[in-house]
Design brief:
By secondary structure, the chain is an alpha/beta fold. It is about 35% helix and about 10% strand. Helix 4 (about 90-95) runs antiparallel to helix 12.
Length: about 500
Amino acid sequence: MNKAADDGLTIFERSKPGRRAFVAPELDVPDVPIDELLPAEYRRREPPRLPEVAEPEIVRHYNRLSKRNFDLDTGFYPLGSCTMKHNPKLHERVAALPGHAKLHPLQHPLRAQGALELMWNLQQALAAIAGLPHVSLQPSAGSHGELAGVLLTRAYHEDRGERRTKVLTPDTAHGTNPATVTMGGYDVVKVGTDASGNVDLDDLREKADTDVACLMLTNPSTLGLFETGIEEIAQIVHGVGATLYYDGANLNAIMGICRPGDMGFDIVHFNLHKTFTQPHGGGGPGAGPIAVSERIEPYLPRPQVVRRDSDNGDGPHFDLDYDRPKSIGRLRGFQGNYGVFVRSYAYIRSLGAAGLREVSEVAVLNANYLLAKLKAAGVAEYLPAAYDRICMHEFVLSGAPMKRELEIRTLDLAKRMLDFGVHPPTVYFPLVVEEALMVEPTETETKETLDHFVEIVVEILREAREDPEVARNAPYTTPVRRLDEAAAARKPVIRQAL
């Protein structure tokens, strides 16, 4: 059998009856009948069909799987609007300390003072970064933070006796925004983008009325552009009594430089797994804390981590506050993904205020350098910037000329990048840009890496001028070739017969 065929075997195909990687020691506790441990209706009727393999095969199995995935530790990952930055290994060691990793989630607050203090300090740090005084750590992801924001908005209006029905989102919004609005029971109303890439203020004025509960916005936008009219946007939204919600996906561009609260936002969600270096991807875990203004604070999820002064002079202690009569309630079990909090708090404390500002400055510098370098290399002939402005931490190119003149699509370019050891940027988003390619280099990449990315794009375009079929049939070096993505989405194969 050749190596390629051997690599294609599943762990079940490698299974042989009787092989073992582990033999349990003899029982050293009293033997209890299974009927006393688990009722018959909850037990399997037959043993689970698990592969029978030796330890080397298990190790090789997981190593093979790991090498089939492209990851941030392997190469450049310029995934637009997702801030796939390096995750410092120090944070992993800190999160793995026994006091963090082995703390039981049902531990009484009096016996979890260290964890609660860390969470309270993280709340204070995030409040300072957002420019808003109150923070809840409960939401488990950015989309969960969005849902919290919509539910907080609903609670705020209902407490005032108002029944509002609509939420505004830009036509460049992340897809989770309209999905969250619908889950929250509101109607989605899209606001257009003007010729400069900003929110169309005239369209906003026309659609902002007393039926509007909220405008969900990220600044910089998903086009990688700072909303120059943000103060006027806030005035329009607040003028009709609505709240202004900040999608924190792009916070990496402004952290330590300006604050959403100062722009007029009432609710902010953070992506700790983007901006604050919790490892990102693979389905989790993540965290999407929210920061809110004074008028939204009564409705925050319960319980809240609070610091209380002791009556006996022993100093402050930390507790969970359940006495919140106007709260939207609990959003998840326990208090959140604690290991994520540890990593993010370590990141903030490692850098300090000046370091966080430098992160954003370098992220913006890297994006503008990369955009300028692509233009200088002649790439703009086929991949021009969608909006020719100074960008923030990311930028969006349009592959429309490339599709027309070289007869390859943005998807073809992205697939070919995989053969050069680079993960492709986000493609076909935002939807307002034809054949969009959205690039975010982050602050953790070197100049040499960015220069190499430019060389790759130039080489793929050179290939396409000579033979577009090369890109159309890419990738060639990945474990699997190009898939039928439409069929994979509509008819996924998620289970293999044993």
